Amino acid sequence: MPGAGIRVGITTSEGTRIPLGTRQGGFPDRERLRELRAVYKLRLRRKRLLYRAFRKRRQLGAVSDRTDAIRPGMILGTATMRNEMVRLPYFLEHHRKLGVEHFLIVDNASDDGTREFLADQPDVSLWATSKSYKRARFGLDWLTWLMVKHAHGHWVLTLDADEILIYPYWDTRPLPALTGWLDGQGIEMFPAMMLDMYPKGRLGAQSYAPGQDPTEVLSWFDSGNYTIRRQEPMENLWIQGGVRARHFFTEKPRRAPTLNKVPLVKWNRRFVYVNSTHGILPRRLNRFYDREGGEFASGILLHTKFLDTVIDKSREELERREHFANSALYEAYYETLIEQPDLWCERSSRYLGWRQLEAMGLMSRGTWL
Amino acid sequence: MSVGIIMLVHTALDRAEQVARHWSAAGCPVVIHVDANVPRKTYKAFTKTLGDVPTVRFCQRHKCEWGTWGLVAGTLSASELLLAEFPEVRHVYLSSGSCLPLRPVQELVDYLAARPQTDFIESATTSDVPWTVGGLSDERFTLRFPFSWKRHRYLFDKYVDLQRKIGFKRKVPNGITPHMGSQWWCLTRQTLSAILEDPERDTYDTYFRKVWIPDESYFQTLARLYSTNIESRSLTLSKFDFQGKPHIFYDDHLQLLRRSDCFVARKIWPQANRLYDGFLRDPEGAIKMTEPNPAKIDRIFAKAVERRTQGRQGLYMQSRFPHEGFEHSITSGRYSVFQGFSDLFEDFEPWLAKSTGTQVHGHLYSPERAEFSGGQMVVNGALTDSPALRDYNPTAFLTNLIWNTRGERQCFQLGPADETAPIWFIAKDSNAQVSVISGAWAVPLFKSNRNFADLRQEAARLQKLEAEQLKVLRSVWAKARIRIWTMAEFIEAPMEPLQSIIDEMGQHALRRLTEAPKMADLTGFGQFLQNLKNQGMHPYLMGDFPVSPPGLNQPKPPRKPYLVQ
Q1: What angle do CA A335, A337, A339 make, to 5 degrees?
Q2: Which domain range does residue B471 map to?
Q3: CB interface of B with A, residues 116-145, below 8 Å
Q4: Which B residues, 235 through 294, put their C-beta within 8 Å of a C-beta on chain A?
Q5: Strand locations in A21-154, DSSP E?
Q6: Which parts of chain A sit beneath pLDDT 50?
Q7: B88 and B218: one domain?
Q8: CATH tag, A49-359
Q9: Tell me: the pLDDT tens digits for A81-134?
């Protein structure tokens, strides 16, 4: 029941495509045709990815299926994991506290107790597979299938185990407040850029105890060296930069990791993530930035990759070659990591909380006050 | 005398119950209208839980859809019931299930008792208010709206278009003047009963049934007919964002709401436990008689609208990435770009830093590295001097630098050899102040100890590059504050341009420059240019230099640094 301030126009919303045909009638112009072709190609791509997920559904074996407990309106979390015993306790605690009520997790051949630990959690439904993570589009095929089955109509938070979601007011307003507000605004997604957190001093020299808040160890980040491009035809932003670009990719900035993500989506079974959660189809879900100078609301994924475990993990990655589309390119990156560099520099910023990140312009409240 | 409360409820019934109890515990009778879309079972359970409160009644239910007549119908039924059942009521306060009383109820009762004839209802004519920007304002009252805006948007739009095309216009009955305003009012028994018992009410109801969003105009219009004393404001604090969606209040708004001194606020998030616990307690302390003071909240929310529609200028981030040309300024602060100055003057950078107190960088876009001030390798925001990272996105490098150092003016040098510099971007940026001494790149060549053939080639290259840059800076699209001098022009009277550049930068108090930068010794420069010409290259960007200084063959004493009194 909005009030007197209502602004009702007989206009179509800005995202709506004008139907086929030109203003004066006659043949559709060339640009419109090209646009239609691009849209149709994306549609095919989405269908193909959905079919792919459907074919891989048998790779998953249920370890503990508690999906009966999912009620309408619950906020779900999904993730693929492999040997994440160190991060898991805090990961679950943080996101439970935010208001994720049920987790759908795929375990990819862990041997450090991750699987047993997850199987014991009352709010986790666990599936296991030992198939290739890389060939399952880095786990996305598996998650897509689980979301088709269980997540339709829910707000879903898709994360990696080394990501901690924060957003404006997260410490006083749980996720249902955010999703409720987004629903009221008619918005279906919420972006959160990855922010690489790192320690001061050589990597691996700090110790982290499971369950501890990782920002106590990884308290530093780069605040203002990010580059953004807009990419067609998906219309997503491509954000790069941060400490990894600064330290590992100074010669080949183009290869620096992608940081933009859209982890929180009001899921529909026809949706599909394209490349990790960096991109999503249909493409309207990638338009989470204001193009006319305003600011939409957005959050941050605190990326806890650089815990002391990163050294061993990098060794393992070098052997497994299960990460990224072109593993060879990242060899040098992992080799540098094993040498335990110090990522800190005198212009690093110390993490103080969401208000700081908001003031720095890394995320925004939009109109959510 | 007391205040009667009408509550329009459709969700979060547990909260509605809590608030209803709070009202009635303070002696205010409550009539609740529950949306007919609420299932019968839920409704029954709800009435039962409130069964123990004698002063709570439930009125006939209507289907309430946003923007339709149902909301008015519900309010009318509830008003009739309230006035009939509770004869001691003098003021009727309309609220919703997500409203929360912020001040002790007794304060509201006293406030209204002190103003027994006043109707608090926001009510303004459509032509006088900017609320309905670009949408339907007058047409709310002159067209018909049989289709639901929420469910049948297409039909709604088409039907409006059709009526516009035909030129259809409804007649407003009995010459009443349509007024609009917030739907949350507080009316006296006199005014409200006059509206309810009006012999023409059927006519009005029929008319308003097809008006768009009648809950914002029905009472607002009719109250004008009967009220003797309208105070055109709502006692309910209710904020809307720029799309007309109500702002929601959460736990962290507790202090803000408390300081507003408003009687009632909406809309409250149902799970905001701290708010409900904090405000629904028994009153403590003395009763205040202060006026509601929503000004502070208004300011904060107005700022939020600005943030949403205009954002932070010059910030590029994940949820703000404007089209080119869609904002007022493309960087977040003013900065100055100097071309040729550090070639012509030996100590230009330290001199500039000293006389203006700004950050003075060297050639930020030098091919070797970004020459940050003081030889820094990394500056604010962990922006590094790596040329590859910079050239990967030269514009982002600049916007990042300006954003990271907001509050501190940046100056940097540019030269024709800095090929990756985003010259178009700078030229179009109204925050940029660009000063160019064209042709000054020849001075370092003249001073260098290189073979003349190399010099000639290099001079040709630099001249070509600078000519391109000047073309951009002189383009009609350039919005920066741009000044270009030829070198010959500039050295005629260097202090004047320097003074005006520095005055325009507006750092510190305006004062005269007392010390000039030291100009390079240009003896023989004219000859050097002539030699280039003799080799078939045509240096023209520096202007006309005589081959030999005036007073042929007489060595001139080296020029002293300027000293201006």
Answers
A1: 80
A2: 335-534
A3: 122, 129, 131-136
A4: 238, 240-248, 250-252, 269, 271
A5: 61-64, 76-81, 102-108, 124-129
A6: 1-25
A7: yes
A8: 3.90.550
A9: 999 999 999 999 999 999 999 999 999 999 999 999 999 999 999 999 999 988
